[in-house]
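Notebook p. 47: complex prediction with heme C.
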Amino acid sequence: MWQRWKRLKTGEKVLFGFVALLVVVAVQNYISIEVRRLSSANPVRPILTHYDFSGDGFHGSELFRKNNCSSCHRAIGNGTNMGLDLDGIGSRRDFKYLESFLRDPEGTYITRTVEHGMAPKSAAYVAQLPEKDRHDIAVFLSQLRADRGGAAARLPPVGKSGFIDAMLDMWVPDSWRIMFSDIRTKDDGADEAAKKGADGAAQGNHNDH
Ligand code: HEC
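Predicted complex, structure tokens below:
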């Protein structure tokens, strides 16, 4: 081994030495991140989405997998990030929007769609699914909720955030502080109302079947 190393040219030694150094640094970083993650009292990567499925919602989750939605989307930790991550979408969109999007994506989406819509778009088949299946999938999606502060949540984290305060100090003109109130000091009422609306709609339609 040592004989072989001695036979290498200087450039090769530098190159291999550098690669070996990179590997050592990467392994060291990985170990220190893992040690920090496992020994920290607060989760380093908190999970900010959650779900609590009704019967229709659970059926919708099965349809979601069966109909290949997870080849473009991610939900409850499954699937790909190629398209939109749908975890927490129920906190951003209500049941009515979701059902309408699945039925008529081009008439519902805020801008032009890429994949959903009419053939030959790759997700055109979604609008052709039976109405009951689309309904259950929409219930499922509306029950994917995000906690405050999560990427999909409408509201920022509860309490003080040094990062948000620093951003406000840097970018917000004083006049805005008079014109607008800080939503972090309000309660979560709006999100609760949206949730009730979503569940109420899901319940209403559920009774029709
Ligand atoms: C070929 C890839 C692909 C497949 C398959 C697919 N989607 Fe999508 N989906 C997208 C893309 C891309 C968007 C963004 C809108 C667009 O450009 O079409 C999207 C958007 C959405 C949205 C809208 C989100 C919003 O915020 O308005 C929902 C809901 C959704 N998809 C659900 C589904 C469901 C349910 C299925 C399966 C029945 C599915 N998708 C299958 C690619 C896909």
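Notes: The mean pLDDT is 87. The beta strands are 49-51, 74-75, 78-79, 144-146.
Next step: compare against the earlier run before touching the bench.
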